[in-house]
Structures are given as structure tokens and as C-alpha cells.
């Protein structure tokens, strides 16, 4: 595999790095272990990997700060790894652009399955994907949203959620369905992150001449087009 096929495992616990590496190498992945955030940031900039597994608690730059920095220049898939099971950490990790979230201790098969699922979603997005409505253009391919002629700054998950709803106009989705389709895994029944993302989307893109993001009380959300 070339350099771009590597998975970076970023954790100051060398035992965790070794365990994750063993699971992934057994599946044919090439893995590089990194033990601090500053080194990880430099390596991601210099030689972008295929995917990053990133611990939240790191010396120097922590995982949350590192994820935010990486999202300023790259949409490389990121899976957060943490010893905490706190829901607030989980929500925060996904809001700042992580693609998935695994709590230690984890099962090796689950880790590998999550990695493969994130990579499938990421590779599936390489084809041209865009949708237009009056006053709104959303492109997953370019990671761009234009609202009333202006580029709108969205986080990766805000953009992916908006794109998903826009490509299924007038269809109502429950929070769990949105988590499954946009985040791509079971979110343990906590759906607050969907509400947060919808709220932010409404603040950033408002509504158009014949469309708006609508709450269907007791059910979920839809992109309503008249």
C-alpha cells in the first residue's frame, strides 16, 4: 500500500496503539502509530492518511482540538477513541467533524467493522454529488454550500445532514434514521446531536422561496418543498 493507504493511530498509550494496530494489520491495513497531537497534525498535513483513529486525551494538542485543526484543511475520515462514555463528549466529538466514536474498552471486531464502514462511506462520496433548489446549492463532492449567492461555512456533518435531507425532499426521517444514514452507526439511543445540527442548519441557511427544514413533532425532521 502507498502512503495514502495508511491508517494513523494517535494515542499516548502505546499499548492501545499496539492493540489497534494488530487488529487492523490482521485485516490488511498498513498502520502508523503516533503518540502526541503535534506530531499527528504535522504528519496529517505532510502525508494525508486513509483514516485517523484519534484518542481524545492526548498530551499537547488534545483530540478535540486536533480534530478541529484537521477539519480546517482536510476531510480525512476520523474515528474518535476515548476511555470516557460520557454522552456530552460523544456529542462534542461528532459536532466538531469526527466520523465515528468508539469507547474503550472496545471489541476488536467492532473496531474493524467501524473502520470499514467509515471508509465505505468516504469512498462512496468521491463521485459527483450535488443538489440545487432556489437560493440553495449543496455539493458533497466539493464540500460546499451556497445560500442566496454566498458560500456558507458548515461543519462536515452539518453539510452531510443537509445534503441527505435535500436529496429526500418531503420525506420524514426519525432522529435514529438520520443518525444511521448520516453518521452511519447506532448512536446508543441518544439523538441530541441531530437536534443540535438541525438548529445550526436553520441558523445558517434559513429557508428558501419554496423549501425549509421542518420539524414533524413526535416523529423527526424533513426537508419540505412546496
TrEMBL record:
Record has Chloroplast as a keyword: no
Domain Response regulatory: 6-119
UniProt cross-references to Gene3D superfamilies, sorted A to Z: 3.40.50.2300, 6.10.250.690, Winged helix-like DNA-binding domain superfamily/Winged helix DNA-binding domain
Keywords of this entry: DNA-binding, Phosphoprotein, Transcription, Transcription regulation, Two-component regulatory system
Pfam families per UniProt: Response_reg, Trans_reg_C
Domain OmpR/PhoB-type: 128-225
Name of the gene this protein is made from: OmpR7
Protein's recorded name: Stage 0 sporulation protein A homolog
DNA-binding residues: 128-225
InterPro entries: CheY-like_superfamily, OmpR/PhoB-type_DNA-bd, Sig_transdc_resp-reg_C-effctor, Sig_transdc_resp-reg_receiver, WalR-like, WH-like_DNA-bd_sf
One function term, GO molecular function aspect: transcription cis-regulatory region binding
Modified residues (4-aspartylphosphate): 55
Annotated PANTHER family: DNA-BINDING DUAL MASTER TRANSCRIPTIONAL REGULATOR RPAA, REGULATOR OF RPOS
GO cellular component: cytosol; protein-DNA complex
Described purpose of this protein according to its UniProt entry: May play the central regulatory role in sporulation. It may be an element of the effector pathway responsible for the activation of sporulation genes in response to nutritional stress. Spo0A may act in concert with spo0H (a sigma factor) to control the expression of some genes that are critical to the sporulation process.
GO biological process: one example: regulation of DNA-templated transcription
Keyword Methyltransferase tagged: no
Amino acid at each position: 500500500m502507498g502512503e495514502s493507504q495508511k491508517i494513523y493511530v494517535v494515542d499516548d498509550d502505546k499499548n492501545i496503539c499496539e492493540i489497534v494496530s494488530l487488529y487492523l494489520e490482521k485485516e490488511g491495513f498498513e498502520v502508523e502509530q503516533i503518540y502526541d497531537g503535534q506530531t499527528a497534525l504535522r504528519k496529517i498535513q505532510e502525508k494525508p492518511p486513509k483514516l485517523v483513529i484519534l484518542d481524545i486525551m492526548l498530551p499537547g494538542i488534545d483530540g478535540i482540538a486536533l480534530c478541529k485543526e484537521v477539519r480546517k484543511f482536510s476531510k480525512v475520515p476520523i474515528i474518535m477513541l476515548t476511555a470516557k462514555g460520557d454522552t456530552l463528549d460523544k456529542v462534542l466529538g461528532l459536532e466538531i467533524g469526527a466520523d465515528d466514536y468508539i469507547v474503550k474498552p472496545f471489541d476488536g471486531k467492532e473496531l474493524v467493522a467501524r473502520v470499514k464502514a467509515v471508509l465505505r462511506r468516504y469512498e462512496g462520496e468521491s463521485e459527483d454529488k450535488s443538489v440545487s433548489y432556489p437560493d440553495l446549492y449543496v455539493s458533497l463532492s466539493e464540500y460546499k454550500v451556497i445560500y442566496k449567492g454566498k458560500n456558507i461555512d458548515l461543519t462536515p456533518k452539518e453539510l452531510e445532514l443537509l445534503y441527505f435531507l435535500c436529496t429526500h425532499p418531503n420525506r420524514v426521517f426519525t432522529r435514529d434514521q438520520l443518525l444511521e444514514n448520516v453518521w452511519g452507526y447506532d448512536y446508543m439511543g441518544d439523538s441530541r446531536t441531530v437536534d443540535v445540527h438541525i438548529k445550526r442548519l436553520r441558523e445558517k441557511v434559513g429557508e428558501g422561496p419554496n423549501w425549509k427544514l421542518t420539524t414533524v413533532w413526535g416523529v423527526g425532521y424533513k426537508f419540505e418543498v412546496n
